[in-house]
Amino acid sequence: MKRPLWPAYGALVLTMALWGSNPSISRLVLEAVPPVALAWSRWFVVAVALSPVVWPERRAIARELRTRWGTLLLFAVLASAPQSVVVYEGLALSSAVNLGLFNSAIPVLIIVLGALFWGKRTRWTEMLGVAVSLAGVLVILFQGSAANALALAFNQGDLLIFAAMTMWALYTLKLSDRPASLSPPALVAVIAVFGVALCTPALIAEAVLVHPPQLDAGKVLALLYIGLGPTLGAMLCYNYAVARVGAVRAGALVHLMPVFASLFAVLLLGEHVHVFHAAGFALVAGGALVALAAPARLVSSRPIAKTQF
Questions:
Q1: 189 in helix, strand or coil?
Q2: Would you list the DSSP string of 227-268?
Q3: Per-residue buried b or exposed e for 253-270, using 16+ beta carbons within 10 Å of the residue's own CB
Q4: What tens digit of pLDDT does each residue of 169-201 get?
């Protein structure tokens, strides 16, 4: 008997809601927990939570650390605490709405970077989609203002967020080099530990030069939520859903994430969604759907268009 698919689609919607909540929850604590401390704490929670899960794989992990430490270190830079530092530095200068919207550009960034550095062939539909999505990114960067565009006036936080999305796209492309002997949780645990170690000097410097984290019960709960919800919980839900419905159907729902991000930003932070946000999202998401709509890609592509929250 064929199992129903609604639990998988429910898991996908929950994943997008968890990812969408992260910008707003992070923005709420950024004043008390500065960017490096927030990124470090998020991935420290992940490392601790995964330790008992991956303990049976300790020999495989040790073997890969001896032979593939460079690759694992690069993964950590592109996708764990260092990348999260760039995200949170950008979020401190931008908005939760913008952070959610820029995630829709990741599938298109994967196509562009794959063509530039991996020699991947591009179809005309992909090039058209890239152009449309780029227009959407520019609309958001320049806040829908022709004057801002002519003066090249944009928010530096938005540029940092876009750089962080580029890092995640590079990580996604590099995943083809991941150690085959490590399970997905083991890989995440290793890059989490590497990322925490890499950011520890910056954490100390931030505590001295800016201020140390100012924690209370609410802030601790928020940090635990960010680590266990949008990071680990969303990963488990997403992997379950992809296994049931496939990468193409799952990828199509990634664009729910900015919708949830905007909803949480309005409810929790009082941010406003402007016409240029809607226009930019329509262009970015529409371009991504056009770029990913080639029949051969739908049949043969691997699930590379994941979003990092």
A1: helix
A2: IIIIIIIHHHHHHHHHHHH-HHHHHHGGGHHHHHHHHHIIII
A3: bbbbbbbbbbbbbeeebe
A4: 888 888 888 888 999 899 999 999 999 999 999
Query: What's the CA gap between 144 and 174, in Å, rounded?
Result: 34
For the chain, the structural domain boundaries read: 6-300
Query: In the structure encoding, which two tokens stand for residue 158, read together?
Result: 């938005």
CA distance 291 to 205: 43
Three-state SS for 173?
helix
Structure tokens at 12: 């996908």
- φ/ψ of residue 226, rounded to 5: -60, -40
Helices (H), 142-294: 146-151, 156-174, 184-209, 217-226, 234-245, 247-252, 256-264, 275-291
Is the pTM above the cut of 0.70? Answer: yes
Distances in Å between the Cα of 39 and the Cα atoms of 127, 154, 155, 213, 239 are 34, 25, 21, 12, 23
Q: What is the DSSP string of 31-76?
A: TTS-HHHHHHHHHHHHHHHHHHHHGGGHHHHHHHHHHHHHHHHHHH
DSSP summary character for residue 80: S
The 10s digit of each residue's pLDDT in 52-109 is: 999 999 999 999 999 999 999 999 999 899 999 999 999 999 888 888 888 877 777 8
